[in-house]
Here is the input.
Amino acid sequence: MIEILLYSSTQSNLSNILVWVLLSVLLFILVGMIFWQRRTGKDLADELAELDKVEKNNVQNEFVLKALGVATWHMDVATMNIVYDQDFRMRSDGWITDASDADGHFDKGLSMLQEQDAERIAKSMQALCEGKTDLYHEEYRVMIPDTNRFFWEESYATVAEHNVDGSPKVIVGTSKHIDDRKEMEDALKDARFKAEESDRLKTAFLANMSHEIRTPLNAIVGFTSVIADVQQEEERKQLLDLIHENTQKLLRIVDDVVAISKIEAGQEEAVMLQFDLVQILNEVVGRFADKVKDGVSLTTSYASESQLVTTDLNRVQEIMRHLLSNAVKFTDRGSIVVGFGEPHDDRIKVWVRDTGKGIATEYQKRVFERFFKVDEFIPGAGLGLSTCSTMAYSIGGDVTVESKLGEGSTFTFEFPVGN
Here is the structure.
C-alpha cells in the first residue's frame, strides 16, 4: 500500500512539472508572438508611410510635369523603341495626340521632323546610345500631320541603365514644346536688330545731316557776307536768288526730318478731308513747271477730269512733291508724266513716270531707306522717298517703284479712295 502511494505521489509531481514547463513554453511563445506582431505592425506602418510618401511625391512630380508641360519617356537601346510614360506637353496649332500615338520606334519620331533637323537629331541620339556622350539635348521642329505647319520642341535624355559590358541599355528623357520661348527669342532678336538699326540710323543721320545742312548753310553764310560789297544790281539779284534757293533747301531738309519724326512718334494724326485729286495734282505739277531741264516735257495723264478722294490732303501733296522733285532732279532729257488710273477695289494709283537715269534692280528696295542715295554726287539728304513711304503707310497706302537703268522710272503711290 505504501509503495502504491509513493508511486502516485511521484507521478503527480512529474505531471505538475510537465504542466508548468508546457505553460512556460506557451507563455514564452505568446510573448514572442506579441513582440513579433508589434514589430510586424511597426514595419507595416513604416511601409504604409513610405507608400504614402511615394504617392505624395508622385502627385507632386505629376503636378510639376503638368506645370512645365513636359513629357517623360524611356527608350530601349537594343530595339530603339520609345515609350512615353507621361505626356503633359501643350498641344500646338490645334494638333492633339495621345502619348501612345508618339510611342514606337525612334525612326517614327524622326520621320515627323523637318529634314534639316532629322539628320542632326539622329547623330546626337546615336552618340548617346553608343556611350560617346552622357547627355542629349536638342531643339527641333516637328511637322504637324497633313499640314505645312510645325512646332518647336526641346528634348533632354541620359542613360538610366547599363549592360554588363557598360554599354547603354535604357535611356530616359523629357520633351517639351517651346513655341512660346522661340517667339520670345525671335522678338528679342527683332528688338535687338531694331536697336542696332536705330543706332546705325542715328549715326547715319548725324553724318548726313552735318553734311546736308552744312552745304546750304555755307552758301547762305558765304553769299550774305559778300552781298554788301556787291554794287551791281544784277549781281546782287543773283546772289539773293542763290541765298533763297539754299534757304529753301535747308528748310526742306528740316521739314522732312520733322515730318518723319512726328508721324513715327504718333504726334501727327492724319486729317481726312474730301478733295479733288486732279486739282491737287495740277497744283503740284504747276510748282515744277519752270524747274524741269531744257529738253524735258512735263505733262499729265488723268483717267478722268475730276476724281474725289477722302484722305490726308497735306500728306498727298508732300508725297507727290517728293516724287515729282526726284523725277525733275534725275531727268535730263525726254519726259515726265504725272497721272492716275481708274479706282479699283476702293483704291487708286497715282504715278510719276520719267525717262531719267533709272535705278538698278539691286537698289530699287533700298531707295526707300533713310539716307540711302543711289548717286552720292546728286544733292539731297536721302530722306525724300523714306518720307514718302512713311507718309503713305500712315494713310493706308504704299509707294513702289519700277525702273530700268538708263531708261527711266515709274513711282506709284497707291492709297484708299475713302469716299
